[in-house]
Amino acid sequence: MKxxxxxxxxxxxxxxxxxxxxxxxxxxxxxxxxxxxxxNFTEAPAxxxxxxxxxxxxxxxxxxxxxxxxxxxLFAENDGRTSGLMFGQDGLLYACHYRTRIVAAYxxxxxxxxxxxxxxVNDLVVAANGLIYVxxxxxxxxxxxxxxxxxxxxxxAEGFKPNGIILWQDEGTLVVTDGAQPxxxxxxxxTDGSLKYGDTYYSPMQTxxxxxxxxxxxxxxxxxxxxYVATSLGVQMFDPTGRLGGTISAPQRGFLSNVVFGxxxxxxxxxxxxxxxxxxxxxxxxxxxxLRYQNQ
Length: 296
What we know:
Layout: H1 2-18, E1 33-36, E2 42-47, E3 53-57, E4 62-66, E5 72-77, E6 82-87, E7 93-97, E8 102-106, E9 112-117, E10 124-126, E11 131-136, E12 141-146, E13 154-158, E14 162-167, E15 173-178, E16 184-189, E17 195-199, E18 219-221, E19 227-231, E20 234-238, E21 244-248, E22 256-262, E23 268-273, E24 276-281, H2 289-292
Antiparallel strand pairs: 1-24, 2-3, 3-4, 4-5, 6-7, 7-8, 8-9, 10-11, 11-12, 12-13, 14-15, 15-16, 16-17, 18-19, 19-20, 20-21, 22-23, 23-24
């Protein structure tokens, strides 16, 4: 009898954990709204400690941020063509310069310094301890970079076409999209920053009818450990058990490249899509790791 009851309790807890539909995320009276337009190809949304949004217009080499009136203003301009952005615990804005194939670190005055050079760079995620994971589609690899430049970059995963990348809240699990397959690869992060396993923990991603891939790109996570992935069908949301909870419709028909939580309470979901940037208010918050680990 005790064994039977334990099984029922375990099953109930699993069912409850998986019961995370989009109704727990979306606000009915808050659709996508336009934040910025008249651009070329927007990418790399990132937020600072105050939830202020930064993003890139890749072909022009410009990085923008929202001013006090929530309007885009120029932050930096160079020929690097930024394809990935994320703030580190040190307050620097780390970037992937797609054209020049470097990882850069920006000061608040818009000046940057080179942190590392790689065969190619696409996206990155910065851990609280200063380690940076960078996707390299050309080498079909993920690189580990030290933000302080104390040692040379080293390859920590390979054998697939990595694109978007994000860490779980506890930074013990790394998730990477696969540009050649409709799957998300999850790695266990070891104490030295190395990665293990690369399992397809999440359920298969939705793909357009007749298409082999989902065009999965950038990702973000919320406080309830849900994962949000920008795809050609919209923002696909997965619960902590890896089950697909639903897809948030795309803000427009253009390519959806990335998503991030921001705003003062981190309950605004920003999306970069083709020539525009959009936002919508949601129920959960998604504070970045620079806040979750600010006392470490």
